[in-house]
Amino acid sequence: MFVFVKRAALFSCALLITPSLAAADCLDSEPLQGLDYQYEQALRVGDREFLQQLLLPYFVWVHNHAVAHESKADLLARLGPDYQPLKSRESSEVEVIRALDTAVIHGLSTVDKFTDGPRHANSYRFMRTYVLRDGRCRLLAGQTMKVWSTESEP
């Protein structure tokens, strides 16, 4: 009986020390890839309401070779009433790295725009950092680097 009580006490202490572990399922690979897909689609169609909830107030997105960066306010403004939705935005080669209440997701994102002429698409290497805050996964930061464009094809 003493061994059971001792183990139960140790388990309870472990839960008190790491309360986020029980609630951190959203940072596991499969759920996080699903959430990140929702993020990609929100960017594609300009879903500002979803992004308002997902992005932390101090979110930053560093673009291609750091030539530009956007805050949460900048991104939401760019996706305003004049925003033209994209034809598609799809991820591949996606991997997740996790440490406690933080996860990094990285891979390749291909963005296809609607055009009246030839196809216009870009592929980017991306890396985004999600954190667990108040029981929810939130996007802290992202970085993209263009690796291919239809404009660079011969």
From TrEMBL:
Gene3D superfamilies, alphabetized: 3.10.450.50
Q: Where is the DUF4440 domain?
A: 33-139
**Signal sequence interval, chain numbering:** 1-22
Does this UniProt record's set of keywords contain Signal? yes
Q: Which Pfam families match?
A: DUF4440 (PF14534)
Keyword Signal on this protein?
Answer: yes
The UniProt keywords, alphabetically, are: Signal
Q: Which InterPro entries match?
A: DUF4440, NTF2-like_dom_sf
The identity of this protein, by name, is Nuclear transport factor 2 family protein
Q: Which organism is it from?
A: Gilvimarinus japonicus
